[in-house]
Amino acid sequence: MTGPLSAPGWLTDGMRHVWLPYCQMKHADPPLPVVATAGTRLHLADGRELIDGIASWWTACHGYNHPHLRAALERQAATLPHVMFGGLAHEQALVLAQRLAALLPGDLERVFFAESGSVAVEVAMKMATQYWLNRGERGRTRILSFTGGYHGDTIATMAVCDPEEGMHSLFTGLLPEHHVRPLPRDPDSLAALEAFLERHAGEIAAILVEPLVQGAGGMLFHDGAVLRRLRDLADRYGPLLIFDEIFTGFGRTGTMFACEAAGVVPDIVTLSKALTGGTLPLSAAVARTRVFDAFWSDDPMAALMHGPTYMGNALACAVANASLDLFEREPRLAQVAAIHGWLSAGLEPCRGLPGVKDVRTLGAIGVVQMERIGDLRALKRRLVAKGVWVRPFRDILYLTPAFTATQEDVMRLCGAITDVVRQGVP
Ligand SMILES: *Cc1c(COP(=O)(O)O)cnc(C)c1O
After folding, report:
1. Nearest to 180 by CA among 194, 166, 170
2. Which of 121, 272, 393 to mutate to test the pocket of ligand 1 (most atoms within 8 A of CB)?
3. In whole angstroms, what is the distance from residue 406 CA to residue 137 CA?
4. Are 166 and 159 within 8 A, CB to CB?
5. What tens digit of pLDDT does each residue of 133-144 get?
6. Distance of CA 259 to CAs 25, 103, 112, 142, 214, Å?
7. Ligand 1, atom 6: nearest CA belongs to which residue?
C-alpha cells in the first residue's frame, strides 16, 4: 500500500481539501497517486505500474495518451481553445455534429452539446417534456424509466435512476417523482408495463432506458427484443423513446451504438463517456427531426431554453473528432470482438467458484457477479496488490478495458480477478 513514506506531499496536503466521489472519506483508503498514464497503464508516484481494467469509467477507449488525440488537442489549443456557443460558431463543433448525425441511425440529426452525461440526460428530459408542451399537450411531464438503471447524479437524473441507486428514500421530497418500473424482459413484465401505460400514458413524456446494458446500476444486460418492445410501446402510447447511450456508445457493446444492434431508432440519444476518448468532458443529446421540428416555431417561448457556458467546447470537440478518426482508421470494433473472446475465456474459470453468482460478457464488458462482497476496501487492496486497477462495486467485479488492450493485458486482468475470487472474496 501507499504508506506515508511514499505518499507525495501534494497528496497528503491536498487530501485535506478535496471532497471525493462516492466515498465515505473517514474510512476509505487514500486515492492512489497517479503521475502518468500511457496506453493501458497507470504509473503511480512510488514507481508501481497498474494495468487499467476500467479505462477511467470506460472513457479511455483508445488507451491513454493516444498521439492522434494529443496532436488534435495541441493544434486546437494553439488556435481556438474555447468560444461561447451563443451567437458564435466554430468548425470543430459543427463538424462533430455532422459526424455524429451521420454515424447515428435514422434521422437522429440534431445535436445539442453539453459537458457531462447527467446534463445531457437532463437536456433530453427537457426536450421531451417541452416537445409535448409545444404540441399543446400539457399533462405529459413524467419520465418512465427502469429499475437497475443509472442516468446520472444530478437531482433530476437521480429521480430517474433505480430508486436504490438514486437514493430516492434518502432524498424524498427533493426529487421530482417519475415512474421507475421493471424492464419488460418477459411476457409478464411486458404485460405489466403495458397495463401501466394504459393507465398513465397521458402523463408520460418519454420512456428512458440504457440500451443493452444497465451500467453503473449493476452491469445488467438485456437483449435487443426488450428495446424493440419499448419502441413498440412508445409508438402505441405516444411517449418519446430516449436511449441513454452514455455507457454503451462508441463501440462498448460491439457495435458503434447499442441501438444499431437492436435495430431500433430512438427519438433522442444521449452520449458522453467515450465521446472524447477519455480526455475532456463533453456530452450530447441528439434528437430526431420530429423532435426538433416541434421547437421550430414563430413562438419564441417554443425554443429550447438551455445553454451550458462551456457548450461545444472547442478543445473537447476537436478531440472528439480525433477520436472518431481513430474509429475510422483503426480496427476498433474488431478489437472489441477480440476482447470479448478474451474476457469470456479469461473469466470463465470464475463460474462455479464459491460465492460466484454469475459470469457474463458483452462486447468489451466482462462481469463477475458475487453473492455478496462484504469488504470492498479489502478486495480493492488485493486487486491493486496484483498490479491491476479494477473498481468493484456493490456485488460485482467488472472489466471495461481500453479497446487497444492487448490479449496479455486482458488475460492479466482476468487472471487477477480469477485469483482473488478463487482465494475467496472478503
Ligand atoms: C456515467 C453515466 C451517466 C452520467 O454521466 P456523468 O458524466 O457522470 O454526469 C449517465 N448515464 C449513463 C448510462 C452513464 O453511464
Report:
1. 166
2. 272
3. 53
4. yes
5. 999 999 999 999
6. 39, 12, 19, 23, 14
7. 117
The ligand 1 atom at the shortest distance from the C-alpha of residue 154 is 9
CA dihedral for 305, 309, 313, 316, sign (positive or negative): negative
The minimum-distance atom of ligand 1 relative to the CA of 149 is 13
Ligand 1 centroid–CA 117 distance in Å is 4
Q: What confidence tier does 2 reach under pLDDT thresholds 50, 70, 90?
A: very low
What one-character DSSP code corresponds to residue 17? T
- The residue length of the chain stands at 426
d(Cα 396, Cα 417) in Å, to the nearest integer? 11
Residue in 244, 267, 380, 409 annotated catalytic: 244
Q: Where are the extended beta strands (E) located within 304-363?
A: 356-362
Apex CA 416: angle with CA 415 and CA 418, to 5°? 60
206-232 pLDDT per residue, tens:
999 999 999 999 999 999 999 999 999
Alpha-carbon distances, residue 239 vs 125, 129, 233, 403 (angstroms):
12, 10, 8, 36
> What CA–CA distance (Å, rounded) separates 95 from 318?
9
User: C-alpha cell of 167?
Assistant: 437514493
